């Protein structure tokens, strides 16, 4: 979502444009015109916000969590709030495994909440760099070794069971359930009937018990 950096106003009395710099998440909009023209004429001109003349910056707030294999036994995975600005927005999606570098900052409180918090502060990381550890399919480079491995898998008569057993390998058995989940992940082919009706290839899986 856009983050407001400079808020622009137009005075209905003198017609001047007034700009207000916004440095925090919350701000108090200007109501009366502070221009010299209104002061000279002793008129209390009303200001109207102008979105077109305002300045915005792309902003995204995400929450990251520790990997399950890195959490000590008996502990809960820790989480952290990350702020992304500019070109870094939309670079992180749910399920991604990333390395982040940035500045660790406190979240300032205002008003009554600041009085109650005292010396306690919430914190966040203002990210400066995002490194993706899991590549998307379109970003992967197919090497000759990968092509050879795919060709070997094509010749495997037990490929269906091997792929199913690779799902949740720490859970023993339940091969039928794993095969159903495999079909759900892979999906099917969307078919278009002669009258134009589409039949989706994805299946629904309901696990009970």
Automatic annotation (TrEMBL):
Transmembrane segments: none annotated. The keyword Hydrolase applies. InterPro entries: MCM (IPR031327), MCM7 (IPR008050), MCM_dom (IPR001208), MCM_OB (IPR033762), NA-bd_OB-fold (IPR012340), P-loop_NTPase (IPR027417). PROSITE patterns: MCM_2. It is found in: Nucleus. Residues 159-209 form the MCM C-terminal AAA(+) ATPase domain. It catalyses: ATP + H2O = ADP + phosphate + H(+). GO terms for biological process: DNA replication initiation; DNA strand elongation involved in DNA replication; double-strand break repair via break-induced replication; premeiotic DNA replication. GO terms for cellular component: DNA replication preinitiation complex; MCM complex; nuclear pre-replicative complex; nuclear replication fork. The keyword Glycoprotein does not apply. SMART domains: MCM (SM00350). Its EC number is 3.6.4.12. Its main location: nucleus. Keywords: ATP-binding, Cell cycle, DNA replication, DNA-binding, Helicase, Hydrolase, Nucleotide-binding, Nucleus. GO terms for molecular function: ATP binding; ATP hydrolysis activity; single-stranded DNA binding; single-stranded DNA helicase activity. Belongs to the MCM family. Acts as component of the MCM2-7 complex (MCM complex) which is the replicative helicase essential for 'once per cell cycle' DNA replication initiation and elongation in eukaryotic cells. The active ATPase sites in the MCM2-7 ring are formed through the interaction surfaces of two neighboring subunits such that a critical structure of a conserved arginine finger motif is provided in trans relative to the ATP-binding site of the Walker A box of the adjacent subunit. The six ATPase active sites, however, are likely to contribute differentially to the complex helicase activity. This is DNA replication licensing factor MCM7. It comes from fungal sp. APA-2013. The lineage of its organism: Eukaryota, Fungi.
